[in-house]
Amino acid sequence: MPGNMSRKKFFWPVRVYYEDTDAGGVVFYANYLKFFERARTEMLRAMGYEQDQLIAKEGIIFVVRSVQVDYLNSARFNELIQVSAEVVQAKKASVTFEQFITRGDDVLTKSIIRCACLDAQTMRPKVIPDYLIEHFKNEY
Question: In terms of Cα–Cα distance, which of 56, 17, 22, 59 is closest to 38?
Answer without folding.
Answer: 17
